[in-house]
Amino acid sequence: MTVTASARRKARHYAMQALYQWQMAGASLNAIEAEFRTDNDMSKTDVDYFHDLFHGVAKNLDEVEGAFVPHLDRKVDDLDPVSRALLRMSTYELKNRIDVPYKVVINEAVALAKKFGPTDAFKYINGILDKTAADLRPAEVKADKQ
């Protein structure tokens, strides 16, 4: 399958939901992933990207949170579960998927926050990710602002 923007979008959508479920239920990553692959039509989804995001966040949780926590005005556990999942996933992308422009990562997170998050959560997420991107990808952010 050729990787398309919509296939990546679906991968992020499912990864965010899988992370949400993992945070709330604490089931094993493999069990959650198997459930998602069984219960959803993954034919138009970049399943490798879904797997990378979902497992990458869980395996690198301390490192991922360490990148965005300094920009929070509250504890990670005080974030609503959707925002927490999105910040974790997007920060993982910013750190580990430099093939994806930072603006794409932020725009995708904002779109998911508008769809699934509480009212105005997308504004908060946008602000945190802007600061996180400037830390993690300073050259790319600086070049973009010139």
UniProtKB/TrEMBL annotation:
List the Pfam families hit by this protein, alphabetically: NusB
Give GO BP annotations, semicolon-separated: DNA-templated transcription termination; transcription antitermination
Recall the GO molecular function terms of this protein's record. Answer: RNA binding
**Family annotation (Gene3D superfamilies):** NusB-like
What's the superkingdom here?
Bacteria
- All copies of domain NusB/RsmB/TIM44, residue ranges: 9-132
- Keyword tags: RNA-binding, Transcription, Transcription antitermination, Transcription regulation
Q: Does the record carry Zinc as a key word?
A: no
What task does this protein carry out? Involved in transcription antitermination. Required for transcription of ribosomal RNA (rRNA) genes. Binds specifically to the boxA antiterminator sequence of the ribosomal RNA (rrn) operons.
Protein's name in the database: Transcription antitermination protein NusB
Gene responsible for this protein: nusB
